[in-house]
Amino acid sequence: MTGMEGMSANPLDLLPEILLLLGAVGGLLLGLWTPQHKQSRVRILIVVAALASAVAATVDLTEPDKGVFDDSWMIDTTTGIVRITVALATAAAVLLSSTSLAGHPRETEAYVLMVLAALGAIALAASNDLLMLAAAYLLASVPLYALAGFAKDARGVEAALKYYLMGALVGVLMLVGIAGLILATGSGNYVELSGSLPQASMPLVALGVIGVLAGMAFKAGAVPVHFWVPDVTAGTTPAMAAFITTIPKLGAVAAAFRLVAEPFAAIPLDVPLLVAVIAAASMTLGNLAAFQQTEVLRLLAYSTVSQVGYMFMVVAVAGQSDFAVPALAIYLAGYAVTNLGAFAAAAALPKAASIGEWADAVRGRPRLVLSLAVLLLGLVGTPPTAVFIGKLTIFTATADGNLVWLLVLGAVNTIASLFYYLRWIAPAARTVFADSKQPDHMLAGTQARAVMVSTKVQVLRGPAMMVHAAAVLSVLLGIGAGVWLTFIA
Hints:
By secondary structure, this protein is mainly alpha-helical. It has 21 helices and three strands. A hairpin with a 4-residue loop joins strand 2 (66-68) and strand 3.
């Protein structure tokens, strides 16, 4: 993040957000006048709007940093990366969810809610004022409560209720924190807070810091406000789980990064240490909980909790290392691609709930297993994937910020995470490998059993293609990281 070069009130400064909003409003109106069997038109409109938003955000990324609308909205590298990543990830999530939503009586409403939540995530990242941050938190939360229980079964309703109650509790805590900071300084603007907080009442400041960071931790799914993550992930469809565990996280981490780098940087409290503890707890407890999971979605849920830990590592050194912004940029992009791809693997076999069932269902599909392996090993941080480059840059930034103990813990957790990802990869790979080694007369019987399995668990073509695309893109982003990081710089 760099200093502002001016303030503006030109609506076109928010063109990426306007395009998404037009997509949401246009999609809702189009859905009202479109027959139920042709709701795919709404999906196409929203995907086009998201892609147009990403293009507009890419153009804006080449412009100087600036604050707009009384300096309440910051347009800089961090905002630009979140704009692009959220828009593209939303388009991918809408396409991924089309399989499960096609023909649903509320198909249009689901797509519109996804776009509104994406707008909230971007607003979190761009907020340069505490009141704007509070509004962004609500916009990034309320649509997701509806999406979490969209299936309307017992599991989904329970998950949505837990999500809402914890969101309301943390939301109140966040509002108390915002009120404390404004009461202590008389302003909610980040620039003014940076100058006023060091002289303010420390008890109020401490209350404010804890409350605001709790809100960002909840949206990111970080410890200790992560309890909703496994229930919501397992209680909704894989496509919705992919959206809920990816899009809001991007905005929340970027918002926490901006807070630590700017208004919280000069106060006489060790905020980086607090964030480092959150990072350490998230990656460690997420990994420990994932070890014992046999259900695919719950394993991925705890995986997302551990991934937040690595993201918060770079938040802990925000403003203290020149590598912090590039590390944040590449990790957010790499995580979005890889996490969506991993959930697409679950969406491709929606009736294969456990690791064993998934392995049986992919018999005879070695390419799907290979793509899954690329994605899961990518989440570990295996070269040459994008997450590997992201983790390497994060570890460099953490060392540069003198948090060596956190760097060591991050490396240990990275190695430990390999084991539970292999618990999913190994059975599937073993199934495919065993088929290739069987004699022809035995293979015929195996293929017959595979046909019987496939009649129970059908592999959905759309999500399967997204698994392959995400695996390829993850590798390409890793190989080409130097090129697009140079563009960002």
